[in-house]
Write a structure and sequence with these properties.
The complex is a heterodimer of chains A (438) and B (60).
Chain A (H helix, E strand, L loop, with lengths): L14 H13 L1 H14 L5 H27 L10 E6 L2 E7 L13 H24 L6 H24 L7 H5 L11 H19 L20 H27 L6 H27 L4 H18 L5 H24 L9 H18 L6 H30 L6 H6 L1 H6 L17
Antiparallel strand pairs in A: 1-2
Helix pairs in contact in A: 1-4, 1-8, 2-3, 2-4, 2-8, 3-4, 3-5, 4-5, 4-7, 4-8, 5-7, 5-13, 7-12, 7-13, 8-9, 8-10, 9-10, 9-11, 10-11, 10-12, 11-12, 12-13
Chain B lengths: L1 H21 L3 H33 L2
Classes of the chains: A mainly alpha (438), B mainly alpha (60).
Amino acid sequence: MTPIAPSLIAPVMTDAAFALTLALLLLAPLAIAGVALINTGLGRSRSAAQALLGNLAIVAVTAIVFALVGATLTGNLPGTPGGAGHIFHLAGKPWNWLGAGPFLLGGLAAAPPQSQLALLFEFLAVALAAVIPWGSGADRLRLTAGCAAAAVLAATVFPLLAHWVWAGGWLAQLGVNFSLGAGFLDPGGAATVHVLGGLSALAVIWIAGPRKGKFPKEGFATALPGHNAVYILFGCMLALVGWLAWNVAGAVIWLHAPLAALPATALNTLLSASGALAATFAVTRIRFGKPDASLCANGWLAGLVASSACAALVTPGQALAVGFIAGIVTPLLVELFELAASIDDPSGAITVHAAGGLLGLLAAGLFAPQPGQLVAQLVGSATLLGLVLPLVYLLFWLLNRVVPFRVDPDGERIGMDLHELGGGAYPEFVIHRDESYR
Amino acid sequence: MKYAGLLVMPAGFFLSIAALVLFPAPAPRAAFVVCGLAVEVLGLTVAVRGHVEARGESRP
């Protein structure tokens, strides 16, 4: 099995490829469902209904906002295939920085099949990207604030990034303009979805602050374990199905991969996740004496995230190695962020999505045969860290002035379910008293 | 201190972009892109340290 060689010229899509990709994209929302279940399970029982409703509301908000604003700015809409947009010239090179698609999905029905599938892929991608920071704000982020943050992502940052990477923007053109391989490659959304989501999670955590009682005045951080390991682990199984669909569909849409190359992409996705789980299992077994279920789930997910960037571009052995590295790094980074950086990230999104995504992007460059691909991937990573994170932080900081992110202390004490929804997720269960509020 | 770190990060990004424009040769271009990334990591480290210090002062 050989990696897919990225093609700059999009061939005409056959009916079989169209039907297969459409079917895969109908399965891709299982990745969102998996992440939502994992986020809910990693939070507390008294916020479970709010957490799951929040995921659903965020998917709805992003769909509406992306249809109204985001799709136009992304510029991958019908009538503007591959590259139409706002361009300025610098040092004799064109820099395509913003899309210019038709308003409100105009001309969708008459669009080429490839454009329609690309649009559907972007709708799902923006939903997943916005769901990621919601999990990191668990137990203190207000529902309204979560939806507002999702709307900001869907209207501004995601369309910019999606245009740069997927719609003929300047990152995609690095190969043509600067001879850097095939340009920045991200067929499964590691950058546009996962690194964006992970960095947004960091911004949310910095602005909302930690959960009450997480970091006491003296001593180590308090462990606030997830309330339902079954949700977390079942979420991982659902996520696998979604990711397989996502990566294979991405290879067809963005790399124009032939059908014969797709089983390898699916296999690499599975191998990356498997390698990551095995590594996290071993690391936590050595570190704590027993394997840790929630960290193993994080490792599995980090392997899937890393595969988003490179599953279509590497060999099975390389995919296994990438997953293995992701699995080793994940539990160590989760611990480092919590203990050394005072970052209260209940879902581990910064490690899983931001670090896992960056690892996958670098692996795609490292293992690519074409010269300059690693530099293209480094430039893309530099854009994410150096431009996207400060931009998202600024936007969320301004948003927090209008729609406060953090719930009031009383709401945090009684739980987000009772405070925001008026009822709990498990009404017949006895809610345990929280020792941190004594 | 957190804001200072966040302001340093775009400087690293522009360094990476400048490398593309200024250096046609692959080796110096790659070196400067890596330097840009290093500046961003430095900025992120400063921002994280700023966050840790701010949290230490406001702990209950």
